[in-house]
Amino acid sequence: MTNSLKLTIAQQNCVLADMDRNLGKHYQAIEEAIEQKSQLIVFPELSLSGYFLRDAVVDVALHIDDKKLDKLRQLSEHIAIDVGLVELGDKFEFFNTQVVFYKGEIIARHRKVYLPTYSLFEEKRYFNAGTRIRAFDSPFGKIGLLICEDMWHPTSSLILAHDGASIIIVSAAGVARGINENEKPQNVQVWETLNHSMAVFTTSFIVFANRVGVEEGVTFWGGSEIIHPSGLSLVQAPYFEEFNLHAEINLLELKHARVNTQLLKEENFELLQYEFKRIAEQNKNY
Question: Where would I find the beta strands (DSSP E) of 137-271?
């Protein structure tokens, strides 16, 4: 594990269902990140395909061994690359997936667990849900991957932190809804509060990669951000515009944060297991 990590968040405007154009945009961002000597680049949710795919899910789905991903594998010889894609499973299922390439190999993969299907969202119609939340080994220590709605369930990030993750990467396609008196979307404040709170509760670095652009008349707000385990914002990208956010984080500060705030150490797993089991049994009757 290194003492520091240089990383880039590629806050991109993904082109709906146009894999070739999106790959081209990825290559450009990766080359810039390599020039900046970043060790890791993070892309938003479904960055290779766009979000509101509906039936086009079938057309853009890729098995993780697909040759279309070969150049990303090649570029990962120089930098770790976290991309979002529609994954074609071995049984022809479709997953909303984040994959991390490094040194030509896949070192981490997360299939979105919580699929929003309400309001303008309809993911359960097109995707299968993931069934695991796990931390992964990396050259930068253990990392965790979450995708958008996963972050809205606090247990997701807590599982990752207890599984050893020191960096939790959240890739999102966060939509802008409502304008308040500051002409800032109302839900942005909620998202940012959530991210900062989870940094404190898990005493972890939160790397939030959100997309921008417009699809089907829906706007994505950006505002990608890196948050310190203390809950303080280290750096943030602008809202509503494409931007490559370059930053460096001091991983040694995690040790101090976890000494000063020992929430993880104090967790009572036996209590949690008992109460969750009790609640699950109760809910069987509903």
Answer: 143-147, 167-172, 205-210, 212-215, 218-221, 225-227, 233-236, 243-250
